[in-house]
Every structure is written in C-alpha cells, then in structure tokens.
Amino acid sequence: MNDKPVVLIIFGTRPEAIKLFPVVHALRARQDVKVRVLVTGQHRQMLDQVLEIGEIAPDHDLNVMAPDQTLDSLTAKLLTGIGAVMDAEKPARVIVQGDTATAMVGALAAYYRKIPVSHVEAGLRSYNIYQPWPEEVNRKIIGTIADQHFAPTDVSAAALRAEAVPGIGIYVTGNTVIDALHWVTAKIETHPELASGLSEYEARFAGKRIIGVTTHRRENFGEGMENIASALEQIAVREDVAIIFPVHLNPNVRKVMDARLGANSNIAMIEPLDYPHFARLLAISHIMLTDSGGVQEEAPALGKPVLVMRDRTERPEGVTAGTAKLVGTDKDRIISEIFTLLDDEAAYSTMARAHNPFGDGKAAIRIAGLVADACR
Ligand code: UD1
Ligand code: UDP
C-alpha cells in the first residue's frame, strides 16, 4: 500500500507547462510525495510540444480544447473535469501556476473540496483588471484561495503582503521559467539538432538583424492586432532587418496576421515553435517585440531588449532594470521604439544587458521542498 501524500499538479497551456515541468521533475525526484499530473488540454498542440520536450507523461488529460471557445464554456468544462479528477485522486495538495483559466479553476475546484493549494508564480499584479484580461483577476482569485504563495521576486511578495494574503506562507522562490530555460539550454548543448530547425531562416536572413515577435493577449484582439500588423509591415520595409514571428494558434491572432503579413518576404510567419526552437529564436534575435508574459522574463535573462506591446505589466522588474520597455499597441510608437533600438547604439546597449531579476534557476527545487514540507 502506498500512503505517501498525493500532490496533484494541474496545468493546461504552453506557459504553465514550461514553468511547471521543472517542478514536476523536482517533486518526482523526492521520495516523500506521490506526484500526479493532470493536464486540462486547454491548449492542445502548444501544450503537447512542451510535454514532449519536458518529458512529462500526464496521468490525466481532460482534452477540453475546442476551436475559439468562450471563457464561459472553457471555465465550465474545466470545473467539472478537474473536480472529477480530484474526487478520484484525493490529493493532499494541489499545485497551480500563474493566471490562466486552468489555474484559476484548478484552485477553485480544490477550494470546493477544502484541499490546500500551492500557487507557483504568485503575487504578480498590474493593478488593472482588464490588462491583462482575464489574467489579473484569475491571479487574485488564486491568491485568495492558496495557502502557499511562491512569489518569483521581492516585488511580487510585497504585493501579496500588501493585500494581507492569508495562508501559511509567502516565499520568494524565483521564477521556474529560468529553471526551464537553463534545462532546455543544457539539452540543446548536448543535442543541437533539437534547435536546428530555424537554419533555413538564419540563412535566408543572414546579415540582417532579427526581430522576434509574439502576440496573443486578449485585450489586444481587434484594433490592437491590426495596429501590430501595420507596424510590422512598416518595420519589414527596412532591408537591414527581418522579422521571425511564430504565430499563436488562437484564431483571433491568426486571422489578422495571416491575412496581413502572410505574403511578406521579409517576415517569416511560422507555426508556434517548440521550446528549444524558441530558445534559439531568443538567442538569434536582436530585439524581442511581444505581449507575452513569459517572454518578458526570458529576454532579460539572455540580455535581449524586449519591447512589450502592452500599456501595463504585472512584471515590472524588467522595466525597472531597463531591459524591458512598455510600448503599447500604437503603430507609430512601436515603429519609433524599434527604429530607436536599431539606429541608436547607446539606446540599444543600455537595454541589452543580461539581467536576471526573475530567478537563479533553482526555483523548482525550493518549491518542491516547501510543498513536500507542507504535506507532512
Ligand atoms: C491562454 C490563456 C492566457 C495565456 C495563453 C498562453 C486563459 C483565459 N488564457 O490564452 O492567459 O497567456 O493561453 O498562450 O486562460 N488554440 C489551438 N491550439 C493550441 C492552443 C490554442 O488551436 O494549442 C486555439 C483554439 O482555437 C482555442 C484558442 O486558441 O480555443 C484559444 O485558446 P485559450 O486557451 O482559450 O486562450 P489563449 O488565447 O491561448
Ligand atoms: N514560447 C514557445 N514557442 C513560441 C512562443 C513562445 O515555446 O512559439 C514560449 C516562451 O519561451 C515562453 C512561453 O512560451 O516561455 C510564453 O507563452 P505565451 O506567450 O503563450 O504565454 P504567456 O507567457 O503570455 O502567458
């Protein structure tokens, strides 16, 4: 009979998988807990890419993804599906990460069963419930339910303390994304073929400075996406730059970007990259232009200036350090900020400093120890 406490780790999207596979590895290396992995399949292809590279075989897969589904439908499916797995597994503790629908509903389902929740990447706040939407509120809901809060930085820990968050503890652990980046970088060193798939673009764009682009925020759908496409069109007119843009699978992103930019020879519109190839894109890019959360954390760690297509961020550390800058989604502002970095060497070198406000690569080990202690 196995009477070790069960820790149920729940995730469903690409960024959660990237940030939780190091935690799964660290907990599996321990003898004192039994690890069970529940993936919701909120993302499908983009989740599966990470499961494969991160060497995770889930114990449960709810496969909830449907094309362009509403937040209502997604949330409803998640709640009944996650609840049923909890009833079967009877975990001693649940781990969720970040701010997605999967994470919020995972915490809620645990609360409905009075199962304690550990929150990885706790305490990020933009102080505007519509930017990012719905992530800011998801994070606050999880913060109210969780009793263990793993804040990546002192800034996020302070935000939780200021809210008088209840629970057994707020811990500054670093962000597990840095663990994931170190892990994948080491893996690429021993298996370079894992990241060699961009060589076609590297050859085609030889001598040009690469701008790596990602976008997918809900609050940027519609006008924001059109503005971003217009800015990219104008930037791509320059002969000294090329754009590599792995396009998120959300149809609200694809329909605009494919129509506007698909035929542009100076823009490589490509499918979402698996994590080793995205790490390679970060390495070869001169500048990252993004509205992603995770990319705001990875780019500073690699000394890549990151222009953030948002008006607010819940990750102010990169901005404070000068390696990230908020540029919003105004077309002219995006173009002028990119051109400044391309044409003003001093401006570029001020931003291009390797800087690691988000962690030292040992967050997952810390988190695994704290979770196991809490299960005793
Ligand atoms: C979700 C998260 C967001 C996170 C982002 C990371 C919520 C509400 N949103 O946004 O916080 O920053 O993931 O990327 O939790 N799709 C596919 N294949 C995939 C993934 C998505 O086809 O592998 C398409 C589907 O049509 C799906 C749609 O994208 O319905 C939207 O997916 P969803 O997870 O609801 O929202 P994201 O925009 O991906
Ligand atoms: N990423 C990836 N392939 C891509 C684009 C991004 O592996 O084509 C990784 C990236 O390195 C980061 C994470 O996905 O770790 C960010 O995910 P996303 O931007 O979808 O979500 P967010 O972080 O904004 O929630």
Report on this structure:
This protein is an alpha/beta fold and 376 residues long. It has 2 domains: 6-175 and 360-374, Glycogen Phosphorylase B (Rossmann fold, 3-Layer(aba) Sandwich); 198-352, Rossmann fold (3-Layer(aba) Sandwich). Helices cover 47% and strands 16% of the residues. It has 16 helices and 13 strands. A 7-stranded parallel β-sheet has the order 3-2-1-4-5-6-7, sandwiched between helices. A 6-stranded parallel β-sheet has the order 10-9-8-11-12-13, sandwiched between helices. Strand 12, helix 13 and strand 13 form a beta-alpha-beta unit. Helix 1 (14-28) packs across helix 16, helix 3 crosses helix 4 and helix 9 (223-235) packs parallel to helix 10. It starts with 5 loop residues before the first strand and ends with a helix. The model has no long low-confidence stretch (mean pLDDT 97). The structure holds uridine-diphosphate-N-acetylglucosamine and uridine-5'-diphosphate. The site of uridine-5'-diphosphate (UDP) has 16 residues, from helix 1, helix 11 and helix 12.
